[in-house]
Amino acid sequence: MDFDMTKPVPETQPWSEKFWEGAKEGKLLIQVCKDCKSKIFYPRKFCPECWSGNLGWIEATGKAKIFTFSTAYDMVEPKFTDELPYTIAYVDLDEGIRMMTRIVDCKPEDISIDMEVEVVFQERGGYFLPYFRPAGKK
Amino acid sequence: MSKGKIAIIGIGEVPTRNMPERTHWDIIYDTCMEAVRDSGLNKNDIEGAISVTPQAQPKIAAELSFGKLPEELGLKGCKDAVSVNAGGASTSNAIRLAEQWITSGIAKAVLVHHVTVHSTIPIPDLINFFARAGVDLQWEYPYGTTYNIIMGLMANRYIKETGCKPEEMASVVTALRSWAAKDPNSFFYGKEVPSVEKVLASALLNTPLHKRESNVLGDGGSAMVIVSAEDAKKMKRPAAYKLGDSVRYFSGTCVMRDFYKVTEGFIVTAKEAMAQAGITKEDVSLWNCYLAYPLAHPLIAELLEVAPQGMGGKYFLEGRMSFGGDIPWSSIGDAPGRGHTGSGVSAATYVETARQLMGKAGERQVRNCKYVYQNAGGGSGFNNIATIWGKEI
User: From A8, which residue of chain B is nearest by alpha-carbon distance?
Assistant: First the structure.
């Protein structure tokens, strides 16, 4: 069987490119609305709260807590099987943003909900995906 | 809003199986002709045809959306044909469109149907389709997520908040399969019902989801004929009357889905649909829930106040939602029991709702079935649609 084994990279939009440029420099950027002061994730063309186009960016601390997680052992796309087992999580950033990520640099059995984590970037096809690892881990 | 305007008066269905020799059009002929015959109408009485769009099957989806169905079946009185696509919420919207056609005078009788043939789709295409559909391609897909993982994320949070035990979660599969084992249209008809121990002994796919808590893809199809409530009453035939309809949108992207907004949405839609129907939860004879995966069932049982908070899993483990239990629940066994036919599981669930209210469910017939709660949702759970159906108006 002919499976496409290409690892996927983020399918970006013009207004999200800044996020990925920041990630390349090791910065986790959050889009903000300069008019209504909303923090926006994921990045949009216009503020989803007030429809303002007056948008900017702030750098997040990179600190977060795990809201939930699931560790995959099987039945993922063939292009990801070489990475098994891996843990997908929703993390809540200190800035009030929730994002999907992977938890790395620890054993799956050591991962728990509410665990404190920090961002660490991993390269894939020229993009630097924000992953998270246990806080304070070197 | 919707009380008593339409009724399902005819149903048709083929068994869910992997049968590559059974083509899309084989299934369409068999299900649609059975539904029209069951309604007591002539094929030329059908004035509108609505297809639930098959997912990952572009050829048949194009044929149906470009109007081939009435011509193929010789529906000489048909005034219009269309396809509807909202993932697992497609059938709910097809029924709403049928209601609009009927109440506005466009059509007196509308045929709604679904067909899916997974077994002829190349496996790499099938895997790729279900890996990407309903998953954000920028913010989720690159991390290697899947539908199974999305369900795992939800289930792990639920377990954390409620203390639901693995055996309670696993018992949902036992309950759903107990219904499926009695359903001739199920993939698992006549098959052994797996015990809780057997479910938990199956391979762990992703925490906390075991292989037997996932879905088997299958081919299948179903159809229904819908007329005005007034016409259904005049025909003096068994019918399922639509009495209530409520919906809330959550989010298209999984990670944007606020868990508390979702739980609130399930509660509110049930209450609104029941209020429209003029009933309370005590009046519901069958909770026909379509959730696609077993892990969400305990939570939904609690949100619908069928089980007290934190007791959803315990109720399943006690067998209360199983075939023969005191709380009739998902009587085709939802997708884990029926076999997953893409958007077709919700179509099959509506057909089952009608079948139960018409008194045609055979061994699975719920005694004195008078009112049915049925929900549906699309994509990876972007919305929840709650409907109430009744035996009489």
Answer: B142
| Three-class secondary structure of residue B263 per DSSP | helix
Same domain, A55 and A71: no
Nearest residue on chain B to A76, judged by CA atoms?
B146
Contact (CB, 8 A) for A104 and A91: no
Instruction: Residue A31: give its domain's CATH number.
Output: 2.20.28
Q: Which residue of B has its CA nearest to A4?
A: B124
Same structural domain, A108 and A131: yes
Residues of chain B where predicted confidence (pLDDT) is lower than 50: 1-2
Q: How far is CA B135 from the centre of its chain?
A: 21
A90 touches chain B (CB under 8 A): yes
Q: Hey, of B123, B128, B156, B159, which one would you mutate to test binding to chain A, going by the most A CBs within 10 A of its CB?
A: B156
Q: Does A79 share its domain with A125?
A: yes
Token pair in block for residue B93: 């919207």
DSSP H helix total and E strand total for chain A: 1, 8
Query: How confident is the prediction along chain A (138 residues), in pLDDT tens digits per residue?
Result: 788 899 999 999 999 999 999 999 999 999 999 999 999 999 999 999 999 999 999 999 999 999 999 999 999 999 999 999 999 999 999 999 999 999 999 999 999 999 999 999 999 999 999 999 999 876
Residue of chain A nearest B130, judged by CA positions: A77
Residues of B in contact with A83 (CB under 8 A): 144
Q: Give the domain extent around A47.
A: 11-59
Whether chain A has a CB inside 8 Å of the CB on B154: the answer is yes
Chain A CB within 8 Å of residue B62 CB:
no
The C-alpha atoms of residue A111 and residue A66 are separated, in whole angstroms, by 9
Note whether A31 and A96 are same-domain residues.
Answer: no
* Domain covering B6-121+222-235 assigned CATH 3.40.50.2000 in the classification: no
Compute the distance between CA of residue B53 and CA of residue B86 in angstroms, rounded to an integer. Answer: 8
Please tell me whether residues A66 and A133 are part of one structural domain: yes
The CATH number of residue A72's host domain is: 2.40.50
Q: Which of A42, A80, A101 sits opposite B138 (nearest CB)?
A: A42
Residue A79 shares a structural domain with residue A127: yes
Predicted TM-score (pTM) of the model is 0.96
pLDDT of residue B266: 98
Instruction: Say whether B144 and A2 touch across the interface (CB within 8 A).
Output: no
Residue B246, pLDDT score: 98
> Residue B1: what pLDDT?
43
Q: Please count the other Cβ atoms lying within 10 Å of the Cβ belonging to residue B74.
A: 9
Based on the fold, state whether residues A48 and A70 are members of the same structural domain.
Answer: no
Residue B266 token pair: 């399930």
In a domain, A2, yes or no: no
User: Taking the CB of residue B247, how many other CB atoms lie within 10 A of it?
Assistant: 21
Q: Is A73 within 8 Å of B206 when comparing Cβ atoms?
A: yes
Closest partner CB to B128 (pick from A4, A16, A129): A4
